Automatic annotation (TrEMBL):
<dbReference type="GO" id="GO:0000166">
    <property type="term" value="F:nucleotide binding"/>
</dbReference>
<dbReference type="InterPro" id="IPR050424">
    <property type="entry name" value="Gfo-Idh-MocA_inositol_DH"/>
</dbReference>
<dbReference type="InterPro" id="IPR055170">
    <property type="entry name" value="GFO_IDH_MocA-like_dom"/>
</dbReference>
<dbReference type="GO" id="GO:0050112">
    <property type="term" value="F:inositol 2-dehydrogenase (NAD+) activity"/>
</dbReference>
<dbReference type="Pfam" id="PF22725">
    <property type="entry name" value="GFO_IDH_MocA_C3"/>
</dbReference>
<keyword id="KW-0560">Oxidoreductase</keyword>
<dbReference type="InterPro" id="IPR000683">
    <property type="entry name" value="Gfo/Idh/MocA-like_OxRdtase_N"/>
</dbReference>
<dbReference type="InterPro" id="IPR036291">
    <property type="entry name" value="NAD(P)-bd_dom_sf"/>
</dbReference>
<protein>
    <submittedName>
        <fullName>Myo-inositol 2-dehydrogenase/D-chiro-inositol 1-dehydrogenase</fullName>
        <ecNumber>1.1.1.18</ecNumber>
        <ecNumber>1.1.1.369</ecNumber>
    </submittedName>
</protein>
<feature type="domain" description="GFO/IDH/MocA-like oxidoreductase">
    <location>
        <begin position="137"/>
        <end position="252"/>
    </location>
</feature>
<keyword id="KW-0520">NAD</keyword>
<feature type="domain" description="Gfo/Idh/MocA-like oxidoreductase N-terminal">
    <location>
        <begin position="7"/>
        <end position="125"/>
    </location>
</feature>
<dbReference type="Pfam" id="PF01408">
    <property type="entry name" value="GFO_IDH_MocA"/>
</dbReference>
Length: 345
């Protein structure tokens, strides 16, 4: 896409995530204009239009929005069950798309999306794995790529949430939470994850509806890098996401940005985030800015996740669920990366 002043964007889905993205694109993303909110619920659609500060038009479906024209790109923030149909329609329309994870709900449908994009012959779909845009994780990856402390050997990951979200089950611990670690481990290691093991132990009394929480995963990459992953969605304390990378001659930790520290009454206090909204606000901002800059033809180009990366993560989630049920290691057969998905620098 040639350089232009503004990219006209349609946002699909006006739930919590969609509204957050509409506000971000409207208020803090240079060169972006939300021109369409696509949401079957008229009430939520109206809130989406209001969040765009009146720049957007509400459409009940994607087909009518595309038919009206005037759209340069799209953001998919609808529930995962609706992603595949939207992505095929957007590919047919030739519209660059930033799709929140998951790419689709299963590997078969994700493969159909990838095959469709390969048939078109160019990358249009990006997948919203926002941790790739966090300063700490980017610094950690730079150390790994430079081999400053030798080869990467181990990754220790933790993913904690104060309370288990309503409606979550054992599968969602992997599909919705551990999926982030599955992507970031492959990204940090610079190679795919080829096996996963899942271990259940003593469950927290704060876990609801019979969900086994916390769980531990063991991921193994192609060259043998091991990553242990704690998923603890009922921690009660705070939202905590961190990764320690262990190298041959040192280690590096990507942790929460330092918040204000208060000294009072002989005690030291530091604020911690209660949700992903605060912890990764800057990463989301950078993700959307770099995506829009790439579409405008300015900046260093888009370096986020591709549809192929999205497929690999969906396949690994399926393997993780199988491993949790069987108690055995589940292997993932990783094909050679197609040429249009050659890893960007």
């Amino acid at each position: 896409m040639k350089s232009r002043e503004h990219i006209r964007i349609a946002v699909i889905g006006a739930g919590t995530m969609g509204l957050d993205h509409i506000r971000r694109l409207t208020r803090s993303t240079r060169g972006a204009e939300v021109v369409a909110v696509i949401e079957p619920d008229a009430g939520r659609g109206a809130v989406g239009v209001e969040s765009s500060e009146g720049s957007a038009v509400w459409h009940p479906d994607l087909t009518s929005a595309i038919a009206d024209g005037g759209i340069d790109a799209a953001v998919v923030a609808s529930p995962g069950a609706f992603h595949e149909a939207a992505l095929h329609e957007l590919l047919d329309a030739g519209l660059p798309t930033l799709c929140e994870k998951p790419l689709t709900l299963d590997a078969v449908s994700a493969r159909r999306v990838v095959d469709h994009e390969i048939a078109i012959g160019r990358r249009l779909i990006s997948v919203g794995f926002h941790r790739r845009f966090d300063d700490g994780y980017r610094a950690l990856r730079s150390v790994a790529r430079a081999a400053a402390f030798g080869d990467l050997l181990l990754l220790h990951c933790r993913h904690r949430n104060p309370d288990l979200p309503p409606g979550w089950d054992d599968a969602l611990l992997i599909e919705d939470a551990a999926a982030h670690e599955m992507d970031i481990v492959a990204w940090l290691a610079g190679e795919p994850v080829v096996s996963v093991e899942v271990r259940r132990g003593k469950s927290s009394r704060h876990a609801r509806d019979g969900v086994s929480d916390p769980i531990m995963l063991l991921l193994r990459t192609e060259s043998g890098v091991l990553a242990d992953v704690e998923i603890n969605m009922s921690s009660q304390a705070a939202y905590q996401v961190a990764t320690e990378a262990v190298f041959e001659a040192g280690s590096v930790v990507a942790d929460a940005p330092e918040g204000p520290t208060t000294l009072h009454d002989g005690r030291r206090h530091r604020a911690v985030d209660r949700s992903y909204v605060g912890r990764f606000a800057a990463a989301y901002d950078r993700e959307f800015q770099e995506w829009v800059d790439g579409l405008r033809g300015v900046g260093d180009g888009w370096t986020g996740a591709s549809a192929w990366d999205g497929l690999l993560t969906v396949a690994l989630c399926e393997a993780g669920i199988a491993a949790a049920r069987s108690g055995a290691r589940a292997d993932v057969v990783v094909e050679q990366r197609p040429s249009i998905y050659v890893t960007l620098p």
